[in-house]
Amino acid sequence: MPALKQKISEIFNQMADLLDIKGDNEFRVRSYREAAKTVSGLSDDISDIADDEKKIKSLPGLGESMAQKIKEIAETGKLKQLEKLKQEVPETLIDIMKLEQMGPGRTRILYNNLKIKSIEDLKNALKKNKVEKLEGFGKKTTGQLKEEVEKFMEEKGHERFKLNVAEDISAPLIEYLKKKVGNITIAGSYRRNKETVGDIDILVTSDNPGKTMDYFVDYEDVAKVLSKGKSKSSVRLNTGIQVDLRIIEKRSWGAALLYFTGSKAHTIQLRKIGQDKDLKVNEYGIFDGKKSLASETEEEMYEVLGLYYIEPELRENRGEIDASKNHKLPSLIELKDIKGDLHTHTDATDGKYSMEDMVKQAVEFGYSYYAITDHSKKVAMANGLDEKRLQKQIDKIDELNKKEKKIRILKAIEVDILEDGKLDLPNEILKHLDLVVCSIHYNMKLSEKKQTKRVLKAMENPYFNIFAHPTGRRIQEREPYRIDLKEIMKEARDNGCFLEVNSDPNRLDLNDSQIIMAKDIGLKLAVSTDAHNLSSLKNMKYGVAQARRGWLEKEQVINTYTWKELRKMLKRK
Ligand code: DGT
Ligand code: CA
Ligand code: CA
Ligand code: ZN
Question: Is residue 330 part of a domain?
Answer without folding.
Answer: no
